[in-house]
Amino acid sequence: MNNINFLEDDKMHDECGVFGVYAPGREAARLTFFGLYALQHRGQESAGITTYDGTSAYSHKGMGLVSQVFNEDNLTPLVGHMGIGQNRYSTTGSSHIRNAQPYLIETIYGPLGIAHNGNLTNALHLRYQLLKRGVGLSSTSDSEVITQMLASPAEVWAPENGNKEKDRWVARIRSFMKVAKGAYSLTMLTRDGVYAMRDPLGLRPLCLGILGDGGYVVASETCALHTIGAEFMREVEPGEIIRINKYGLTSFEGVPSEKKSLCIFEYVYFARPDSFFEGQIIHDVRQRLGRQLAKESPIDADVVVGVPDSATPAAIGYALESGLHFTEGLTKNRYIGRTFIQPDDDLRKEGVRLKYNPLHANLEGKRVVLIDDSIVRGNTAGPLVQLIREGGAKEVHVRVSSPPVANPCFMGIDMATKKELIAGQLDIEGIRRRIGADSLAYLSHDGMVEAIKEEQKEKTGYCTACFSGEYPLEIPDWLFEDNRNQEKLVFEESWGD
Predict the structure, then answer these.
(1) What is the CATH number of the domain that holds 436?
(2) Does 41 lie in the same domain as 130?
């Protein structure tokens, strides 16, 4: 049974969180479980763990949250000191058990397990290349395409590469990386060890940690390392391949990285506030975004309220910079967001009220600045403004700590058409009228980038395509059309290659 998100959350969702561990003498499954638990915010539709004990591979996955999928009865049989895991939110591939990860197949060199975060922009072309070679596929996910590509000999995808690398898996990974386009942070399980790799643009995050007893961990975010007592080492570099086995940790260059384009929405919303990227704590960065927003868009008001929980740091920053009083204006039911029980039509209409309640004592008679980190589809901003008014506020001024999201993403976020985006259809005044706010202002693009880079020792680049429309890689025209006939054309062209 699928886990139902009936509140129609007005946020973008990252595809998933990935985890991998090599821990001699310890239960990899248990470490992976708690690592995935820490990464639960990155995906809530399915969860899975695959382990290897030196002889056999074991796997369990299911639909729902980590705590719903796993218990002692199904975790205990996952024996072994090596493991990978994934939390999934579907982007490419529907919400179905057949798309749950990790994928696990048998190859001539033993088991191969894959957990993937991101989207390949040329996945359809690669999919049909596999089908043309006679490889059967059982899901609609690009992650299965990646699995089957890595199961193929290196020379299939990069003939000039051959099998020059002594490590056969590194050779296959390099060949895959030469032809794959888009976003991928991967953990990979084989009988030879745990591997990890990151696309040459570094679109999705991936970091390394070390366990006190000599084991190693790789995870989407540092919060997963801290949860299991691992010490952060560094981030996996764009284009890098990592191997962890009995000989320790080894780094290989997969493909050269010409520029770095980490998804800037990791800072704005995706990442957990206690994680850190590029030496910066996410909570601190979000406070700086709020401060910059206050500089750019001040308003005469009484209190600052953040939409819990993701906009709270930005609201604190706005209050500190503006000198206005920060207070809680909304309480959030953190347990109602996902359920196995379908609401009836009347309850569905009350979705925002099921998730939030206004605090009348803090809002009564106040001019309120309501801070949110983003407005994507615009289907909850209006009801939230109405809730604040029902709480007694006499004015509601909405401030957003990121620019208008006006462009689709094809690199691992569930937002693939411009028509889904309110800022793709309306200007700021039109959005203000739609949501019923007294005023509305967004953080500027330059202000966002500068606030994020402010404390960096080494300035870097980001993917800001959802805000700016400038993509860090070439996007096929047909992807913008959301047209199945265009997919058919790609299918026919691929068969002709």
Answers:
(1) 3.40.50.2020
(2) yes
Cβ-proximal residues to 140 (8 Å cutoff; 6+ apart), any chain: 92, 93, 94, 99
Residue of 16, 223, 463, 466 marked catalytic? 16
Question: In CATH, what number is assigned to the domain containing residue 204?
Answer: 3.60.20.10
The rounded distance, in Å, linking the Cα atoms of 263 and 286 is 15
Q: What is the residue-level pLDDT of the chain in tens, covering all 497 positions?
A: 333 343 445 665 556 899 999 999 999 999 999 999 999 999 988 999 999 999 999 999 999 999 999 999 999 999 999 999 999 875 544 556 777 899 999 999 999 999 999 999 999 999 989 999 999 888 778 889 999 999 998 888 877 665 567 899 999 999 999 999 999 999 999 999 999 999 999 999 999 999 988 899 999 999 999 999 999 999 999 999 999 999 999 999 999 998 999 999 999 999 999 999 999 999 999 999 999 999 999 999 999 999 998 999 999 999 999 999 999 999 988 766 544 455 566 665 677 888 899 999 999 999 999 999 999 989 899 999 999 999 999 999 999 999 999 999 988 776 657 888 999 999 999 999 999 999 999 999 999 999 999 877 666 799 999 999 999 999 888 788 754 444 544 444 544 44
Number of C-alpha atoms within 13 angstroms, CB side, residue 100? 24
Whether residues 248 and 308 share a domain: the answer is no
Cβ–Cβ < 8 Å for 398, 439: yes
146 with 228, same domain: the answer is yes
C-beta separation of 13 from 413 below 8 A: yes
Find the domain containing 128 and state its range.
Answer: 16-259
Query: Could you confirm whether 223 is annotated as catalytic?
Result: no
**Domain membership flag for residue 448:** yes
State whether 281 and 240 are in the same domain: no
Residue 395 tokens, joined = 């004015």
Task: Kindly state whether residue 446 falls inside one of the protein's structural domains.
Answer: yes
Query: What CA dihedral angle connects 180, 185, 189 and 190, to 10 degrees?
Result: 40
Are residue 162 and residue 240 in the same domain, yes or no? yes
Could you tell me if 309 and 399 lie in one domain?
A: yes
Taking CA atoms, 217 is separated from 201, 242, 404, in Å, by 22, 11, 36
- What's the CA gap between 330 and 344, in Å, rounded? 24
Angle at 450 between CA 446 and CA 451, to 5 degrees: 115
In a domain, 105, yes or no: yes
CB 40 within 8 A of CB 66: yes
**Number of domains the chain is built from:** 2
